[in-house]
Amino acid sequence: MLFDVAAIALTSGALGGVAEAFGVHEISAQVSSVARVTSQPDPFLGPEVDSGSVPVLTAPVDPARLPRLGGSALLEQLTFLSSSDLASFVASHPDSVRSLIENPPAAATVIPIWADAGPEKQAQLIKYSPELVGNLEGIPIAARDQANRLQLSTLLTKTSAAIQAGAGRGSLVELRHRQDVLKQVQRSLKVPKGGPPRYLLTFEPDSGDGRAAIAIGDLSTADYVSYLVPGMFFTLQAALYDWASISQDLYDQQNDWISLLAESDPSYRGKTVATVAWIGYDTPGVFDITSLNRANEGATLLGQAIHGIQSLRTGSEPYLTLVTHSYGSTAAMIELAKGGIEVDALVMIGSPGSAAQSASALSVRNDNVFVGEAAWDPVVNMAFYGSDPGSSSFGAHTMSVAGGVDAVTKKRLAAAYGHLGYFDHGTEAMRNIALIGLGENALVTDGTRKDASRTLASR
Fold it and tell me: Which of 77, 118, 270, 372 has the most C-beta neighbours closer than 10 Å?
């Protein structure tokens, strides 16, 4: 029923031209306009601490004072608690834990607190507060994965038990929806035969429409990392599995290219990649499609995620690329225009526009900003949210998605059509995205006569 209402709203023109541009093929069965509170860095909520980024409480305090704390001060104090006191605090003060997740300390502050806690306290935190550990940037990937999988297993068990115990019709509908979301996450974590390990990097099923991020490959060691940021109508229930599959496809293509490049370039030998299927913000639905509220929220959360992995990898940072689609490109450009983070490359496909006026205004190293626009994509060139990234005045590099023959592999590449065709297997779009994520700009096709000469010898 909700799907039908959404489809009618989009196709009737009730929400204006921009709503019509985003076809019903992107609408999920669960559309919500619930907004998540925008997080702020490292808040301190009590008089015991100041507003700096470094905790000033270096010794245990009376547990009764903990609810008055926030940010890194509270996190540090949790590492001092005994097992029983920690379990009691988490059970008695869920709002304090939730506030710490929604208003997290900076990753650079979390890293030393976690390290100083030691293995025993770390295991204790994972056991008694898995939601917190699993969603704090700066905590190692393996620990977050362990905590989030524990939380997923616990929620599946509790939800199944509640359904079996019986409930009113309204409650039963909510429980079954919740179970569907949890099973979608569980399904998305399954590793294809012979595939790389997967990590549940973020898991907040009850935050707005739900948030999750699945890493494919080892983020803690990969030389090349690509974050895939989705656009409108992407939810955990409707899209996480497909988004993870697309991320897997990109991972596979990049590994294929590394093997090919290594034959003539020894520097590629032993190089590894990782991709992240990131549904880390509430993407807009039918009722807020014309607003930038969720783009601003997504920008902040994406910035925290990128800062998190870069902080964990200080001294061995990977080549990091943002692959952004539709409204996701708008969110990414908001964050990159702030200058709070810097990435090695940005790919924008199907972009509806940006408040940034040019590629040079974005914090992307060496102007590695690429734009792809498919035929019959009703969203591109509309510049609904500001300037058009595909215009020549914006200054981004053109990435061809029209199809053709790969000058390197001699394989025929398919064209991308419509708003979602960029991610189809075997397209020129996916080929170029893979190469951009490896820093191989010279091999990226732009639809000109030069494409025929983009061979390995031309690098």
Answer: 372
